[in-house]
Amino acid sequence: MADIEAIREARRRRILQASEIRINRVLGQPADENEELVIYPKRTARPEHPKNHGENTEFNSTQEDRNTAADSLDKEKHRSTVKITPIKRNVSTQNTSVSQNDSLNTSRSSSDAKMILKHFEFLRIVLSVMVAYLCRRVLSTGYGVFYFQSIIIPFALMEAGFFMFKHKVLHNVTLPHKSSMLIGVLMLCGIKPEVVHLYNQIMGYLTAASEDFAMFFFAFLMANIFIA
């Protein structure tokens, strides 16, 4: 009886060691080189068919349990990888949508700035013509004796009103002007962008003032022809 119990114990140990080695292979863990299967010498004993049959069924059941555990681990790994992929796709789609929204906002802001600048130029033209006509009417009545008081002062007040309106309402809009070689030279010399931006603003104001004076003078001459 002691021999039979020793044989059973040896078989159980071999089954457990084989199952542990299989689980380590499935999980990808390195097997310990020092661990080796302990082989016990077989001893002759009386054949007992029912007991061997029970041991074989137990071995088969343990193998099936290990196989099911390995399959479940593989399925969990596969599910985890499948769950990760849509997260990356969502991030990429969000980045593309954000970049598209930024491009649309910049295009809209540029188009709005151009439209506002056109309206401002139209307002300057209309007011220049109206002020020139009123100045000529004042001179024709005899109230304005000096040309400086009747022409230069109204024009200066009109330009001051234009620039104040632009500074308060259209502070983000830069008045257009003809670009020259000086801007390129300043940028090549390493001048700060703030200085270049200030230069563009000053040149925009000077260009707008010269255009307004030309329109004002032309309208004044036309009014002088029709009134005289």
From TrEMBL:
The GO annotation for biological process reads: tail-anchored membrane protein insertion into ER membrane
Against InterPro entries, the record matches this protein to: CAMLG
Where is the sequence biased in composition, kind Polar residues?
A: 90-108
Instruction: Report the PANTHER family cross-referenced here.
Output: CALCIUM-SIGNAL MODULATING CYCLOPHILIN LIGAND CAML (PTHR15026), GUIDED ENTRY OF TAIL-ANCHORED PROTEINS FACTOR CAMLG (PTHR15026:SF0)
Q: What is this protein called?
A: Calcium signal-modulating cyclophilin ligand
What cellular component GO annotations does this protein have? GET complex
Q: Where, by residue number, does the polypeptide cross the bilayer? A: 145-165, 205-227
Q: Where is the composition biased (Basic and acidic residues)?
A: 45-56, 63-79
Residue span of region Disordered: 42-108
